[in-house]
Design brief:
The protein has one domain: Rossmann fold (3-Layer(aba) Sandwich). It is 33% helix and 18% strand. The chain is built from 9 helices and 7 strands; from the N terminus they run αααβαβαββαβαββαα. A 7-stranded mixed beta sheet has the order 3-2-1-4-5-7-6, with helices on both faces. The structure holds S-adenosylmethionine. S-adenosylmethionine binds next to β2. Protein-lysine methyltransferase that efficiently catalyzes three successive methylations on 'Lys-36' in eukaryotic translation elongation factor 1 alpha (EEF1A1 or EEF1A2). GO terms for molecular function: methyltransferase activity. Belongs to the methyltransferase superfamily.
Length: 251
């Protein structure tokens, strides 16, 4: 899945993932990398949420092929992929043009200031993008104020561009005890549910349904899986996922 060895592309420390020039340089060299896992690993969770008329926004697309996978699944209401890195955006445009793929717009945009009208999309999806904001969060139980401010900004933008009954899917390392305080903030109207996927190490697939918050949706705290042991993480995570995770959650 990874086109390049992790040692060739990872920054010296996890906080390097916050530097926009890091991504430009990386996407200038790397053709394809899927953070965590590719679509086939979570298709069973995403496909039931899809329908042909959906308009979809992917936030922080990098050089992932998720946009094309959504097209192949029959999504025809418009797919927009955004990334902060102009290099990633140009490479993705070139790839789509070379394939003759139509129906995916790729745009340079900051997820902290999304340039779309309110209520524009039926589905917003991110894979590993919110996790970038956590790489220098400090104590995961009490993230630093900058992390909190930026995560809330990202979520406010996504909530704003979602249609009234739109769905936000977040695919992440972040365990429920570190994500709930953000997802369940009082300014949001979405319900919060999650599933896991992956062998051994679990990735989290959160489904947030706008306008659907209810008391029941907030009651999953008793089913949090235990944090993985450090040796299991070493053995079972792809090597770059391990570097990325190191500052993300407590090991
Ligand atoms: C960990 S990679 C995930 C890439 C892709 N989603 C995947 O699954 O392979 C994080 C991506 O977020 C992008 N990114 C970082 N900060 C961003 C921001 N403020 N707005 C939009 N994209 C951002 C990076 O350029 C990078 O492509």
């Amino acid at each position: 899945m990874a086109a390049t060895a992790a040692a060739d592309v990872a920054p010296p420390t996890a906080s390097g993932y916050l530097d926009p020039s890091y991504w430009d340089e990386r996407f200038g060299k790397e053709e394809h990398y899927e953070w965590f896992k590719d679509f086939s690993h979570f298709r069973h969770l995403l496909a039931p949420l899809l329908s042909p008329s959906l308009s979809v926004l992917e936030v922080g697309c990098g050089n992932s092929q998720l946009g094309e996978e959504l097209l192949r699944e029959g999504v025809a209401g418009g797919i927009t992929c955004v990334d902060l890195s102009p290099v990633a955006v140009q490479r993705m445009r070139d790839r789509l043009a070379a394939q003759g793929t139509k129906g995916v717009d790729v745009v340079v945009a900051d997820m902290l200031d999304l340039p779309f009208e309110q209520e524009s999309f039926d589905l917003v999806i991110e894979k590993g993008t919110m996790d970038v904001l956590f790489v220098d969060s400090g104590d995961p139980w009490n993230p630093n104020p900058t992390t909190v401010k930026n995560v809330m900004k990202m979520l406010e933008c996504i909530h704003r561009v979602l249609k009234p009954e739109g769905i936000f899917v977040s695919i992440t390392f972040g365990q429920p005890h570190f994500r709930r305080r953000f997802f369940e903030a009082p300014e949001f109207t979405w319900s919060v549910e999650y599933s896991t996927f992956g062998d051994g190490f679990h990735y989290f697939f959160y489904t947030l349904k706008k306008g659907k918050r209810s008391l029941e949706s907030n009651s999953y705290q008793n089913i949090i899986p235990p944090a993985p042991r450090i040796n299991m993480v070493h053995e079972e995570l792809e090597s770059e996922d391990f570097i990325f995770r190191t500052n993300v959650d407590e090991l």
